[in-house]
Amino acid sequence: MKIFVEVEGKQHEIETTSELPLMEVMRDAGIPVLASCGGSCACATCHVYVDPAWVDRVPPKSPDEEATLDGAFGIEYNSRLSCQIAMAPELDGLKVILAPDAIG
Amino acid sequence: MSENHMIETDVVIVGAGPCGLFAVFELGLNDMKCHVVDILDKVGGQCAELYPEKPIYDIPALPVVSGQELTDRLMQQIEPFKPVFHLNQMVESLTKLDDGRWKMMTDAGTNLVAKVVVIAAGGGSFVPKKPPIKGIDAYEGASVFYSVRRMETFRDRTIVIAGGGDSALDWTLNLAPLAKKLTLVHRRDEFRAAPHSVAAMRELVAAGKVDLRIAQIAGLEGEGGQLSGIQLKDDKGETSVVQCDALLPFYGLTMKLGPVAQFGLNLHENLIPVDTEKFETSEPGVFAIGDINSYPGKLKLILSGFHEAALMAQQAFRIVHPDRKLRFQYTTSSSDLQQKLGVAA
Ligand SMILES: Cc1cc2nc3c(=O)[nH]c(=O)nc-3n(C[C@H](O)[C@H](O)[C@H](O)COP(=O)(O)OP(=O)(O)OC[C@H]3O[C@@H](n4cnc5c(N)ncnc54)[C@H](O)[C@@H]3O)c2cc1C
Ligand code: FES
Asked: Out of A38, A40, A67, whose CB is closest to B192?
């Protein structure tokens, strides 16, 4: 599957078959995601904005993710922690923007 | 503590995370006295700061233990060795003295001299997260504060506190009686903080003593380093301005390598390379254990740091007690070790 990640206005296309969290897929592809807690939903530095067309198609937020988002900045309705979105075939084509506070 | 007061000890441990704490135990068993420094106001490192309530399942023989409980148990285990803690202090420098010992200075003016230094700095020192708001730097120190050193600084000021965790709520409760006016800004009407502080904050809001605004900070207004107001944006996108002359953002802490980078040790990708026999750095007598070190096959796990502490303590003994012979003993059967632990019959 393909995913599209925008970092500081630049588009990146990632081809993957992984079912790991989006944060790890981005990191493995060389996207500079800070992710300082290593994916344990504790730091909020893997913050992404999910493309409006995809907001309802990614798995919903847990209360823990919502609470951890309190430590992020510029939160919008489509803000998510990318370490909490497991990749899956139905997310083929997913588009996200890496939030400024998640750029390492 | 007086500025020039110098503390001399066997070992200084930089970082009171789980690995720094367990090092006190291994060093103590081998007759070395420790001082431990941490920038946090509490011990436990990541376990206590980032996930006190979350369960850990891979500590040998503890099928499940929370971050805070692990910390509490380590404190109980090292109690017999009476470590001295210097909390709320950052070790800023490390220099070698002519007699071979090491000198460290903290940002609070504490001077420490030791024969051995153990860097157990984890992912670096914990520092407050800085909101990525344009121009915020210009206000820091005069109008924007990431911590409260003296409450009096805030008397009769018009304050905005941002955030929804324990720090935001604690300082709302503490500063509301002093402030001319206090506004608490949080992005949602739910707070991840101690329930009694949330209840106390709600009472102040109901009594008109604190203003609660459900919104996010969009920008700052002011000039010459002095804030005059904060632009807010609510979840409908409506903007407004709150007058204020002080802003306290509490968005949690993040780890930055910090002064350890200037200690003069070899670094590789912000980690300190060590050997796997002694866990010594490029400087003999300076060791690195836990998340901060790197070697082939390193796993950033608490249990790795515990193992590293035990091996490090062997070499530290040779430096601290050069005239003594190192003995290998079990705590189960050695009356000598049991005496040190205060459990001898
Ligand atoms: C959410 C989460 C879940 C985790 N789950 C597990 C798990 O299940 N199992 C597991 O084994 N590991 C787990 N870990 C990893 C584990 O917490 C770390 O491996 C461990 O905390 C490392 O311990 P440490 O003592 O090396 O460093 P840390 O815990 O990072 O502590 C280092 C301390 O040093 C201080 N410090 C640094 N520099 C200075 C300075 N210059 N002056 C003063 N103080 C300084 C810091 O403030 C900090 O308190 C998890 C981590 C997170 C974030
Ligand atoms: S990596 Fe820390 S919350 Fe996602």
From this structure: A67
Class of domain A2-102: alpha beta
Q: Is the CB of A68 under 6 A from ligand 2?
A: yes
DSSP B180: S
Domain around B171:
130-251
Position of tokens 């006016």?
A: B181
Which parts of chain B have pLDDT scores under 50?
1-2
Q: Are the C-beta atoms of B14 and B118 separated by less than 8 Å?
A: yes
Domain count, chain B: 2
**What would the pLDDT profile of B262-320 be if each residue is shown by its tens digit?**
999 999 989 999 999 999 999 999 999 999 999 999 999 999 999 999 999 999 999 99
CB nearest B132 (choices: A42, A71, A73): A73
Burial (CB count <10 Å: 0-12, 13-18, 19+), residue A1: middle
Check if A58 has its Cβ closer than 6 Å to any atom of ligand 2.
Answer: no
pTM: 0.89
ipTM of predicted complex: 0.91
B38 assigned ligand-binding residue: yes
CATH code (residue B181): 3.50.50.60
